[in-house]
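Hi L., both proteins are below.
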Amino acid sequence: MPLIVVALLLLAGVSEAVGRILPLAVRRPGMSRTLVASFMLAGGLVEGAVFALWPLTAWTLAELVLSSPPPGEELVWTPGLVAPLMLAAVLAFPLLGPFLHLLLFVGAGAGLVSPLAAATGLGWWGAAGCVAVAGAGLGVAVEAVRRLVVRISAAEARVSVA
């Protein structure tokens, strides 16, 4: 993966994390800046890793759907494919509109469909299904981890107050 793609994926991850963590930090004015910064950095790394895994997960699902290994090369992010994802991550801030954010993620996923279809020999709809299931699965997994972290940090906060 080219260094520019890695940088864009990490920047998208940090942007996505900032959009999710800043509203929490505003509602809890007593949080330390180092704690908020560490949450943003950790969240950005996780989000960036999830973004990086999206094409790989879609490729793996396509391999499961096909009876023989795909003839093409593995699907990877390119600067042209990651640009809509980057825009979606920048628009992750809740005040800028969750619907627009979701729409751009769908657009980034749609950008992955044609290269996946060409590389695997699946039809467009089959590739779209693989990309959608991969994106939804990764999104559900990240949301589960987010909720777990919030639950653990809330329990720690109650223990430290008592």
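That was the first. Here is the second:
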Amino acid sequence: MDNFSDLHQKDEQQTVKLNPFTSVWLHPKKTARYMIDVKSIGYVILILSISNIGVLLSNVMEIGLPVWLIILLCIFLAPIAGLFGSAIFTCATWLFGKLFKGTATFSELFKALSLTAIPYIALIPFYLIWLYVSPESLLIADYIGPTPWIFWLTTLATIIISIWSFVITVAAVAEAHQISNWKAFFTVFIPSILLVVFITIIVVLFMIITLISIGML
């Protein structure tokens, strides 16, 4: 009887509809399970396409690109960058998760990790306000002038959202791999550190080769 009750409760939980765009903020594990059990890859692509607009804005706005080019990048590059970046990160956390006895398949982890980009949607209004209040400071790379208040507000929002996105990442990995939060933390942390080290080595080697080529070494 108890087993039947448990199965019935589990079925009810699986049929509860969630809106991942809102539920992920406070219930990341429940939302990750909902994504894995209910949502299709097409829905994941939709999430990544929309969410990575905010990620892209935080990376290209201060380069000094014209507005029309930024719009084109958001339309065409955001979905591609979101899929490519998420696929690479999923592969890393899938492999390292296996070291901690993780059970997720690549597809399950890919669905769960798509949630980590959702918080960056909240950055879009900040950049739109910034564009309205002080377009020069946002779009001109060598801007010289007073720093607008929206800069500090957007910077603070970016820091908070980045931290919360990391929390969601750990929760999503823990739920997908069915491992503890601590194991999920290291599953995320280790490949991230290795990636930073790899990029640092590439940059250093590039600088050394450049200096040698111009005769400074």
